[in-house]
From TrEMBL:
PANTHER family: C4-DICARBOXYLATE-BINDING PROTEIN DCTB (PTHR33376:SF7), PTHR33376
The organism's taxonomic lineage, starting at the top: Bacteria, Pseudomonadati, Pseudomonadota, Betaproteobacteria, Neisseriales
Swiss-Prot/TrEMBL keywords: Signal, Transport
Record protein name field: TRAP transporter substrate-binding protein
Record keyword Transport present: yes
Length: 336
């Protein structure tokens, strides 16, 4: 009888413990980003949330904060390092000011002609090597996410290189992008993404560069009369997590995060082109911005003017890294 009573007591205690465990507060991942929900990054972040919460059976809760609700461009990386947020997907230009200048290689104009070339780099050993460098800053690099190819906009037509001369063009904080605009005779203006619409509206800057999804969802077509489909550069993101937080996850939940990252990356990269195409159609339908497609000769002129930036930035991003990417993509600037 005593054995039976003890067994019942143990079973009751086990059930109570299981119940308390089930009621334990979930691990919270605050995921902050600066763009709209209906962009490739915004949708991929929501997809990641759904995957993690379902796979963890509620043991992890992901709180997504879009549109700079928590932190602006310049603040978010420091917030991650301090643990104020656990997850970000900043554009690749953001890591230069952090001291990892190699990431600015993605800002080089005309480095990639299409997504296939991008993915040879981001999903191969070159990309993995770059993510590994983030660990010295207390950051775990999880994946690269696409946004799209960048286009130029202003309140005047942008057809030839001469059209850029003297324009105040908003850029992210990147020495490469600074050199890019100067190569066109424009005046680069570093500014937080959340401030761009008002700056364009008030004339603080004359124009900017963006993938179509950002241009449209931030309503820049309302304050930019002209858009030139230059496809001159790539905008992507690094999906990152606070290293201490990531390392401290239980092994099974770390596995949930890793699998969810893989699924969200595949999903986000798949919809990136689709979202940019939809955004272009939205701008066209608005009738507020004149859209220009450069002729092959005009695009070649732009390419020749901007590829010079590759040589100028060799010392900053690393000549060996540039050569590795050329090898992966088959690009040869000498053939221009």
């Amino acid at each position: 009888m005593k054995a039976s009573w003890k067994l019942k007591a143990l079973l009751a205690a086990g059930a109570l413990f299981a119940g308390l465990t089930a009621l334990a507060d979930p691990i919270v991942i605050k995921f902050s980003h600066v763009v709209a929900v209906d962009t490739p990054k915004g949708r991929a972040a929501e997809f990641f949330k759904q995957q993690v919460e379902a796979r963890s059976k509620g043991r992890i809760k992901v709180e997504v904060y879009p549109n700079s609700q928590l932190f602006k461009d310049k603040e978010e990386l420091e917030a991650l390092q301090l643990g104020s947020v656990q997850m970000l997907a900043p554009s690749l230009a953001k890591f230069g000011p952090l001291g990892i200048k190699e990431f600015e290689v993605f800002d080089l104009p005309f480095l990639f002609d299409n997504y296939d070339e991008v993915h040879k780099v981001t999903q191969g050993p070159v990309g993995q090597g770059l993510l590994k460098k983030l660990e010295t800053k207390g950051i775990t690099g999880l994946a690269f996410w696409d946004n799209g190819m960048k286009q130029m906009s202003a309140n005047k037509p942008l057809k030839s290189v001469a059209d850029y001369k003297g324009l105040k063009m908003r850029i992210q904080a990147s020495k490469v992008l600074d050199a890019e605009m100067r190569a066109l005779g424009a005046n680069p203006q570093v500014m937080a993404f959340s401030e761009v619409y008002q700056a364009l509206q008030t004339g603080v800057v004359d124009g900017t560069e963006n993938p179509m999804s950002n241009f449209y969802t931030q309503k820049m077509h309302e304050v930019q009369k002209n858009l030139s489909l230059t496809n001159h550069g790539y905008l992507g993101y690094a999906l990152i997590m606070n290293k201490k937080f990531y390392d401290g996850l239980p092994a099974d939940l770390k596995g949930v995060v890793d699998v969810s990252v893989k699924q969200a990356t595949e999903y986000g990269n798949k919809i990136a082109k689709e979202e940019n195409d939809k955004a272009l159609a939205g701008v066209k339908a608005s009738g507020k911005t004149a859209i220009y497609v450069p002729t092959p000769a005009e695009r070649l002129e732009l390419k020749k003017a901007l590829v010079k930036v590759h040589d100028q930035m060799d010392d900053r991003v690393g000549l060996d890294l540039v050569k590795q990417i050329y090898k992966e993509t088959g690009f040869d600037p000498a053939k221009l």
